[in-house]
Amino acid sequence: MIIKDKAVIHKRAELCKEIRDDKYEMELDLNHKDIGIGMSGGMDSSLLLWLLAHHISKNELDTTIHIWTCIHEEKPGQSVHSKNVVEFVKKEFPNVNFGEHMTRVTTAKDYISNGTILAYELVRKHGITALYNGVTLNPPNEIGEAVFKHKWETRALSRNWEKRQGWIDRNPSVLTDPPHIEYRPFIHSDKRIVLAFYKKYGLYVSLGSLTRSCEGFIEMTNYFTEPCKECWWCIEKEWATADIFNYEPKVMLDNWVAFKERE
Predict the structure, then answer these.
(1) What are the helix (H) ranges across 22-135?
(2) CA 93 → CA 64, 79, 97, 196, 204, distances in Å?
(3) Would the pLDDT of 67 be above 60?
(4) Which of 8, 44, 212, 241 is deepest in the core (most CB within 10 A)?
(5) What are the residues whose beta carbons fall under 8 Å from the beta carbon of 5, sequence distance 6 or more?
(6) pLDDT in tens, 9-30
């Protein structure tokens, strides 16, 4: 079954008869008995897990969700946040089958490669034929420099907007070892698509509060107890949230220490 889902962003209450042109669409291929998803505990992967479980439950599909989490040794919050999210989704959808949640701590220098290794280990172990990833693109260049100022330089270049078509062309891509299909349902848009679906399903407080998109180190986060408001991921989240919930991101970001330090 191919699921197509759409989120339409409305203006604030006093203007609710008007609809913005922003329509965020995504597609889930659930023609698989066993699927896997990478869970970091961030907003993107957490929403994707919820959406998969929601549509599996709604359509009464006999699909099992397996999960992998690769834990960065210098940023161990992924373990806590991913487990909290998984427990939340399981309680929301008790009729959905959940398999193994495979976790592993890895050194910082090998974090990306070991994450891939862990994902493929999960695929082989459970005969998974579809692997889901919640990655999005960076904001468009014309928005980036205007809103993010000097922090624009710290974005993850692999997610740049100009690489959009190449990523879409390779999605999904069939891999031969192990054989499975990789899906990136948010890859055609930036982080606003994620916030749009949080808003559509009323999940920003319930599910969103369990997530942590921050990539700050221990000295930046009060020992991992709060977001740093300095890293790219914190700033990107604030921008996307502001846009989808209809307030001005530049005003909010200008009050953050990360921007004041360079003025």
Answers:
(1) 43-58, 77-92, 111-126
(2) 12, 21, 9, 21, 18
(3) yes
(4) 212
(5) 25, 26, 27, 28, 51, 55, 197
(6) 887 766 666 667 789 999 999 9
